[in-house]
Amino acid sequence: MKKETVFTNGRVVTRDSILDGTVRAVDGRIEEIAEVVSDAPGAIDFHGDYLLPGFVELHTDNLEKHFSPRPGVSWPAISAVVAHDAQIASSGITTVFDALAIGDLNPDSVRLLHLKRMAEAIDEARNRGVLRAEHMIHLRCEVSHPDVVNIFESYVDDSGVRLVSLMDHTPGQRQFAQLDKYKQYYQGKYGLTDEELEAFIVEKRRSQELYSAPHRSYLVEQCRDRGITMASHDDATEAHVDEAIEDGVAIAEFPTTLVAARKASKAGLGVLMGAPNVVLGGSHSGNVSAIELAQNGVLDILSSDYVPSSMVQGVFRLWSDGAVPSLPAAATAAVALVGG
Fold first, then answer.
1. Which pLDDT tens digit goes with each residue over 225-282?
2. Contact between 307 and 87 (Cβ < 8 Å)
3. Which candidate, 229, 218, 216, places its Cα nearest to that of 270?
4. β-bridge pairing 270-274 and 301-303
5. Model pTM score
6. CB–CB of 155/139 below 8 Å?
7. Residue 293, φ and ψ in degrees, nearest 5
8. Parallel, antiparallel, or unpaired for β 50-51 and 44-45?
9. Which candidate, 162, 165, 132, 97, places its Cα nearest to that of 303?
């Protein structure tokens, strides 16, 4: 028997307009959008509130918080995934690419500790049918990490892997071109002394020299062979974007300057920025504002990044601040509709 769901008396946000009326879905598929108020039994009355399409989240680290809610705590895996999923769904996200870090700057990172558990738990929860949102996997590949290739090979053939990002968080470039911001972030995150941080910076720059170029080349080749979509990460210069274009990436994640975003947009890459950047009015790393990119017409995709609820907040702030011409235009960024 088919299941019908009716949402009525809402301000329905479509790709092109806002309609006052009703949405009727059958077995989870929209069958009708009508500019009438329905009196069907069981219809869900929105009382004039907005009804938006489900959001598509391409890059979120939120799952990590549920696996390690406090330092030294390792939460049961399925419970962590289900709790993460509930937070995602309640934020209006219906498809999520869970970002799993392949390599990290900190060798003792809980990201590496929980990597296998997270990947397996996503698959198990999906197979059990206990998830509300559709979950895919996004492999975040730290190209300067010595073991990124070996770790990548362990996960790349998972059927859930749909996106790979190529990132390099070496100090003094890309996200952390401003070393004072780098020091503030990593000393706060890892509790390093000034001397320990200086040694940390020297070590990471050395790793970049040894590994970044060959690892990036290998990862690009593997993704091309498998038809996996690639994203660049924290592009700051036109040269960074040129490299991304040559590699065949489709998405420019979190460009740090207007120059890089414009270059990526002109080349047809989908420019993705964090909704927390929108909500807070700027970047915590001192980089370009997502609102500024939207005002310049070079913001295509929103990501909740580390705060799931920021997606819906970001959509409405883009609109209320006049950074985009309409609420449908803002909502389009949250459903990752790029290129017509």
1. 999 999 999 999 999 999 999 999 999 999 999 999 999 999 999 999 999 999 999 8
2. no
3. 229
4. parallel
5. 0.89
6. yes
7. -65, -40
8. unpaired
9. 97
Residue 298's alpha-carbon distances to 164, 264, 275, 293, in angstroms, are 22, 9, 15, 5
Per-residue tokens: 85: 């999923």
Q: What gap in Å lies between CA 248 and CA 242, rounded to an integer?
A: 10
> Poorest-confidence range of 208-212, 245-249, 324-328?
208-212
Structure tokens, 186: 């990593």
Residue 187, judged by CB atoms within 10 A of its CB (0-12, 13-18, 19+), counts as middle
CB atoms within 10 A of CB 300: 23
Phi, psi torsion values for 31, nearest 5 degrees = -105, -30
Q: For residue 132, what are its two tokens? A: 């509300």
Q: Cite the DSSP H helix spans in the chain.
A: 62-67, 77-90, 110-128, 148-155, 179-190, 194-207, 213-226, 238-247, 258-266, 275-280, 290-295, 310-320, 327-334
Sorted by sequence, the CB contacts under 8 Å of residue 108 that are 6+ apart come out as none
Over residues 23-58, the pLDDT tens digits come to 999 998 999 999 999 999 999 999 999 999 999 999
Count the Cβ atoms, other than its own, within 10 Å of residue 196.
13
CA-based angle 240:141:131, to the nearest 5? Answer: 125
Q: What number of H helices and E strands is found in the chain?
A: 13, 13
Burial class (CB in 10 A: 0-12, 13-18, 19+), 189: exposed
Q: State phi, psi for 287 to the nearest 5 degrees.
A: -95, -170
Distance CA 318, CA 40 (A): 35
